[in-house]
Each structure stands twice: as C-alpha cells, then as structure tokens.
C-alpha cells in the first residue's frame, strides 16, 4: 500500500525546505481498479449516482494512522467489484495521496452498502 509520488514530494519539501504540509480534509474513495504505478497513477474509481468520497479523521499513534468506521451510501446501481481505496485531498478531483487494496474483493449490487470498519496505515517504509 504505497504513498503516491506527489505525497512523498510534499513530505520531502516539508522536511527539507520547511514547506508547510497541509492536506486539509482527507477523503476516502473506493476503487474498482487500484492504481498501478508507474504507468497508471489514477486507477478506476467507483461510479454510481449516489457514490461520494467520505471525509475521514485519522488519529496517529506512534507510526500508525487510523480512522474509524465509514459508511458509504447504499448503491443505486450494480457497481461491481470494489478492490481498494484511496486517500484524496478533495471530495472530487484533488490529489491521490495514498492507496491500498482490500484483503478481499467485494461485489456490490443495487442496495448493498459498503462499510469500512477502519483503515490503518503503518509508516514502516522509506519514502
């Protein structure tokens, strides 16, 4: 589960250039196809008339950032498979800062509600 190059560059500027790092609100989005750098840095985000990215509040303990439960709206259409998630800097558009894959693939049909119990990101790798 990697941080994107854009995010890593912001971190390095923050450390070495004293550039303030302010991502503002972090939004969690869902992917049907997760990014595959270096050729694909965007992936394919879920499409549904009621789908929106959800704001998430993360708390940090030691080297782990975690957020609590997120409840996406029940699907208005057959979304298909949800394979992963992304952390974005905006509710629409914005920059992708981090992405990961779920341990399972979820098939979402009309009326199904996708619930994320929590997301934990452990910072144990070099930038």
Give a written overview of the molecule.
The chain has 127 residues and is mostly beta strands. It has one domain (5-122). It has one helix at residues 5-16, and strands at 26-33, 44-45, 54-56, 58-61, 64-67, 70-71, 80-88, 96-108, 115-116, 119-122. The strands form 3 sheets. Strands 1, 2, 3, 7 and 8 form a 5-stranded antiparallel sheet that branches. A 3-stranded antiparallel sheet has the order 4-5-10, with no helix packed on it. Strands 6-9 form a two-stranded antiparallel ribbon. Strand 7 and strand 8 (96-108) form a beta hairpin. The longest helix is centred in the first third of the chain and has 12 residues, at 5-16.
